[in-house]
């Protein structure tokens, strides 16, 4: 069986096709295809409030390409989710309707809480029973914060601040303060807190850090890498550091969110599992298929 997840974010759209593997009644997903394309819908929405005709045309072309890939791979089921940029766009719902009518592909506009819940379903699998975690997921348009005690989520909050929104200076002036207050009020006092980072930017930062242990990096190492990248011009980040063009301009603003939240929470290290929204969507697609049988 093959299933697919498509995540249309504020910066990029991703599709992952995975085979469903069963070993002694344990289910796992093996990636067979992964495609990422920089739609940058947040540039439109956070500046004008809507998605341009040119961007809508690119969405349709990209989804047609994804559709063909899924046909070639003989995908059994898939799901498309769109996050902050498309859900905030004045014409987001009408674009979703036109795409369904023209391509037969249904796009689900999910709220920040739904996005966090989908990621939660896969994040809990890498957490220990007896530790306190602060999960930080930074997208292009929003940041989701979740506090876990072992495998149980204690509380969560979505904030309208993200890498593209910061790049365009479209964040609300008080959002940093609101986020800090929420962290201070909800992090258990006197407990060691481990940060868990998801999102393309923290994954790239993590991969660039030398000497890290397993899947963890220190706050100090994260800050050093952020400051190292900031020294380079955009062109140098692309050519010397070999960052994708749509990653090179947002990685520093995104890292500022991770670092700030970690400092407020008193978290000295961060885990960076190779998991995200697409993995949560895959899990939901599989569970839906099983419930239909």
TrEMBL record:
Coiled coil: none annotated. CDD domains: ASKHA_NBD_PPX_GppA (cd24006). Pfam families: Ppx-GppA. InterPro entries: ATPase_NBD, GppA/Ppx_hydrolase, Ppx_GppA_N. Residues 25-283 form the Ppx/GppA phosphatase N-terminal domain. PANTHER family: EXOPOLYPHOSPHATASE (PTHR30005), RETROGRADE REGULATION PROTEIN 2 (PTHR30005:SF0). This is Ppx/GppA phosphatase. It comes from Emticicia oligotrophica (strain DSM 17448 / CIP 109782 / MTCC 6937 / GPTSA100-15). The lineage of its organism: Bacteria, Pseudomonadati, Bacteroidota, Cytophagia, Cytophagales.
